[in-house]
């Protein structure tokens, strides 16, 4: 926040709230849009690679090797941008924590209070805005203290926790459910109703439970690994570490999924789906209940 008029907008918003009421701010950073789009695009590519590899590759191990290799680049880019986003949150926090009206700039002061085109004398916006702040908050220092405490706390919570709500993550992971719905309808058309129900259970479990929880965990990990390393190669490896941890968790869920259906209960797809669904949903509930919120203060 460097412009004086941004300060005035913030001051007017705070003044509009009644004394003692909780300040409600909804903040959506511009970087979040590309980050979500890349995540959705990565999942679409993952679905496409999985579909074609399943048809073209007979070996089970070669299939997963090809899928992971071709999908890893997009997921790595998502992790790298996620770490950059976490650094941005920290930088914004530091700037607002040291917020001072004296550091803000206004156009009228920059041009010496004269219109560059006509030379007409301009009224000083800074004087007018500071008078408004003193009337609204008593003193400029009182306003600065409120920004440095209340606003910075709300800002960090919005940028780090509220943007990754469960609803947001389910929206991002919709392509996973799409992929399984394609299989479900195909199995229904040929009369494999038990397999179709099993595939539907898997799709809902991956799309509504496992994937949002996995993204939440990886975002927390990206926050702890957010610091930019001195070596460019080491910084790239930190992003790779985030993806590697996510891969290990993903492989664990897939192993549970495939082993219940192909090894333990090959003739009972619905029971196999339940055995996979129940512990996965339970683990997801624990993640959303237990994993602490990001705190930069």
TrEMBL record:
Keyword line = Membrane, Transmembrane, Transmembrane helix
Residues spanning the membrane: 31-55, 61-79, 163-181, 201-221, 233-256, 268-291
Per the record, the domain of life is Eukaryota
Protein name per the record: UGT80B1 protein
Organism of origin is: Symbiodinium pilosum (Dinoflagellate)
């Amino acid at each position: 926040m460097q412009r004086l008029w941004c300060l005035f907008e913030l001051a007017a918003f705070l003044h509009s709230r009644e004394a003692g009421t909780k300040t409600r701010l909804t903040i959506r950073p511009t970087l979040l849009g590309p980050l979500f789009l890349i995540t959705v695009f990565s999942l679409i590519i993952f679905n496409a690679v999985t579909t074609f590899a399943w048809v073209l590759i007979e070996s089970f191990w070669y299939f997963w090797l090809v899928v992971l290799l071709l999908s890893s680049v997009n997921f790595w880019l998502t992790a790298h941008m996620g770490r950059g986003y976490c650094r941005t949150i920290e930088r914004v926090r530091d700037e607002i924590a040291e917020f001072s009206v004296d550091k803000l700039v206004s156009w009228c002061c920059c041009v010496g209070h004269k219109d560059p085109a006509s030379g007409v004398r301009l009224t000083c916006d800074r004087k007018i805005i500071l008078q408004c702040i003193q009337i609204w908050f008593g003193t400029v220092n009182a306003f600065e203290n409120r920004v440095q405490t209340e606003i910075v706390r709300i800002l960090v919570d919005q940028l780090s926790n509220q943007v990754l709500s469960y609803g947001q993550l389910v929206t991002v992971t919709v392509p996973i459910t799409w992929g399984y719905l394609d299989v479900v309808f195909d199995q229904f058309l040929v009369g494999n109703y038990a397999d179709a129900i099993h595939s539907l259970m898997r799709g809902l479990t991956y799309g509504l439970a496992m994937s949002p929880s996995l993204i939440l965990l990886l975002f927390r990990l990206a926050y702890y690994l957010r610091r930019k390393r001195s070596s460019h190669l080491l910084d790239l490896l930190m992003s790779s570490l985030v993806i590697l941890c996510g891969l290990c968790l993903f492989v664990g869920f897939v192993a549970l999924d495939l082993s219940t259906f192909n090894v333990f209960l090959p003739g009972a797809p619905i029971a196999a789906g339940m055995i996979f669904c129940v512990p996965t949903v339970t683990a997801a509930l624990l993640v959303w209940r237990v994993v602490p919120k990001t705190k930069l203060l």
